[in-house]
Amino acid sequence: MVEISTSILSIKKGEEAETFFALEKAKTDYFHIDVMDGKFVEKDTYKKMLEYSSYIKRISNLPLDVHLMVENIDESIEDFLSVEPNIITFHYEACKDKEEVMKYIKKIKDNHCKVGISVKPETNIEEIYEFLPYIHMVLVMTVEPGKGGQTLLTDMVDKIAKLKKYVDDNNIEIDIEADGGINLKTAEAVKQAGANILVSGTAILIAKDYKTIIDELRK
Known about the structure:
Blueprint: E1 3-7, H1 16-25, E2 30-36, H2 46-59, E3 64-69, H3 73-81, E4 87-91, H4 98-110, E5 114-119, E6 137-141, H5 155-169, E7 175-179, H6 187-193, E8 197-200, H7 202-205, H8 210-218
Parallel strand pairs: 1-2, 1-8, 2-3, 3-4, 4-5, 5-6, 6-7, 7-8
């Protein structure tokens, strides 16, 4: 069963509350929280995403899918644990060595939260294979992280397929999330490759009817 995690990155200012309620009514599976620090990626959404997450937590029971695109993972984990997310995903590229990766995995799990590792387009998927037994999800960036509305990089579909084959061959239970450029045209290839959680923002938020597009993406 494919799940949909709606990115709230490009929600219009002043329309936050009504959009959150409409997305919940449309039965998105998660709110996807794109946390950027202006260092690891160019854009800075840190404060805004913390505010949005706190607000969603007060008005909704839907799970928060927190994606940290930050240099200071330690501090960000602390900040976002306060909104009791379902999962916190950090970037493999932001860690200086394997010990650091394991440290963050442990820290997140010790706080009764699921943990994910994200990889940028240029990172070989094999680099994270050793961590798969310890985590709940791999987030494959299908665009360069940092801004919404980009076009999906088609060779990332092969990357997802390679990860899916490895996971199946080794009987590892894990979610594969695809993030970036996901819309009705690109979703099918990503699902066929093995992704079972799709992050979509722009495609959903510009639609007249959130439920219709979420249902279509999920099919």
